[in-house]
Amino acid sequence: MNYHIVTYGCQMNVHESEKIAAILQEKGYTTPVDTDEDADIIVFNTCCIRENAENHAFGNIGNLKKLKRRKKGLIVAVGGCMAQEAGKAQLLREKFPFIDIIFGTHNVGELSSLIDALRERRKKQVSILDARKETEDGITPVRTSYPNAWVNITYGCNNFCTYCIVPYVRGRERSRSAEVILKEVEGLVKEGYKEITLLGQNVNSYNSDGQGGMSFPELLDRCAQIEGKFRLRFMTSHPKDFTRELALVMRKHEKICNLLHLPVQAGSDRILSLMNRRYTREKYLGELKMLRELIPGCAVTTDLIVGFPTETEEEFEETLSLVKEANFASAFTFVYSPRTGTKAAEMEGRIPEDVSKDRIMRLVEAVNENTREMSKEYVGKVTEILCEDYDEKKGLYLGRSEEGRMGYFTSEKNLIGEFVNLKIDRANGISLYGTIV
Ligand code: SF4
Which CATH architecture has domain 382-436? Predict the structure, then answer.
């Protein structure tokens, strides 16, 4: 039997879908497919962090109405943070009565018994838990991104940034035990994975609940001591918790990539305070200075939001000037979108859509200009790329440098999973094109 998992949102969700795939395989759905028509079960792993992702999911679920009527026995399940959001399960049931199973972020592991219950009782199943304390669900994910593998180190978040729904739908921060994480990383290296990313909403506060057994810098240090040729990455770091100790661990090990994803969100102290980010522009820039003194050439990427309630033109320009000052290698840029239940959604001073649109365009241009300039510096130099995939359209292999630049090249041999040295011939935006040397 076939399964189709539709994933929205961040890397966390992509990894969560790998766990959902494991559950489906254990239930007899052995073959992943890319289209709804070919599937015997369709699982939507939703995201509610941004309005766009939510609207997209609603649209896609709605599109299944006819197929569901036509294809007897097709199971439709909806999980993830949208299903977890207050009142959303009820709304989903009313809007799409054909959904068979609804489950939340705290009970992914329960999907197996929900499928059994549906099969046995032929009754729709809804199960949303309010919170979850345990961090281990006993599921071994079906990894789909060789040579890359993701490892959760924490779940949930305690930070309550005023625009963000994550603490409400993912719960308070819980750390997995360091021993379990180290064992998982070791196992992945033995299996041949070449790039391992430690995942958490705020990796720097790992062990804040005392359940990890060591701090994040210690954990990273221990991971980097595991034998074998592989790369280590981690995300996401919160600037309020980023420390010199962590930067020193990054410098100590070649295996840890010279790339830090450090979301700043805005360049104005007033907006940062309204966002409850708990750092200032000066503190943020000070951290980058410290990092670059310790690790010259370390790339920094970020997340930026424009159009936060009451943001003035001058404050937006502070974000623009920060982009220049911080010299970001790249950035994810977003227009603020209110999420029901968050503090910011209650704030007055919404920014008109046309103003936000104008700001995002100017911001994207500033980020791209920086990225283009930085890409030029690679031309003529040799950089190590981990080959990750083959681009059918371009007829080229591709992979990333440790700073996260995408490198494209030709090869007669399949090199996926291998490290190659690429002499960069030309750069186009964030992409590099080169020849193996
Ligand atoms: S740190 Fe802030 S933005 Fe990130 S998940 Fe937690 S609340 Fe959301």
Answer: Beta Barrel (2.40)
CA distance 406 to 431: 5
Residue 151 tokens read as 């490892």
Q: Would you say 42 and 74 are in contact if contact means Cβ atoms under 8 Å apart?
A: yes
Half-sphere exposure of 326 (CA within 13 A, CB side): 34
- Regarding the beta carbon of 164 and ligand 1, being less than 6 Å apart is answered yes
What architecture is the 148-376 domain classified under in CATH? Answer: Alpha-Beta Horseshoe (3.80)
Burial 96-111 (b: 16+ CB within 10 A, else e): beebbbbbbbbbbbbb
Q: What is the Cα–Cα distance from 290 to 21, expressed in whole angstroms?
A: 42
Q: Point out which residues pair with 347 in neighbouring strands.
A: none
pLDDT tens digit string along 116-152?
Answer: 999 998 889 998 988 877 787 789 999 999 999 999 9
Ligand 1 neighbourhood includes 411 CB (under 6 angstroms): no
The predicted structure's pLDDT at residue 122: 81
Q: How far is the CA of 155 from the centre of ligand 1 (A)?
A: 12
**Residues whose CB is less than 8 angstroms from the CB of residue 41 and which lie 6 or more positions away in sequence, other chains included:** 1, 2, 3, 4, 24, 29, 74, 75, 76, 77, 115
| Closest atom, ligand 1, to C-alpha of 49 | 8
pLDDT of 145: 94
* Residue ranges of the chain that CATH labels 2.40.50: 382-436
Which residue's C-alpha comes closest to atom 2 of ligand 1? 161
Identify the H or E element spanning 121. helix 111-121
Q: Is 383 helix (H, G, I), strand (E, B) or coil?
A: strand
> Which of 201, 238, 305 has most ligand 1 atoms within 8 Å of its beta carbon, as the pocket-test mutant?
201
pTM score over 0.70: yes
For 53, residues 6+ apart whose C-beta sits below 8 A from its C-beta are 8, 9, 46, 47
Exposure string over 172-190, b if 16+ CB within 10 A, otherwise e: ebbbbbbeebbebbeebbe
Q: Tell me if 401 CB under 6 Å of ligand 1.
A: no
Q: Are 182 and 218 in contact (CB under 8 A)?
A: no
Q: At 134, list the tokens.
A: 């345990």
Query: What span, in angstroms and rounded, lies between the C-alpha atoms of 71 and 41?
Result: 11
Architecture of domain 2-127: 3-Layer(aba) Sandwich (3.40)
Omega prior to 141 cis, within 30 of 0 = no
Whether ligand 1 lies within 6 angstroms of the CB of 265 is answered as: no
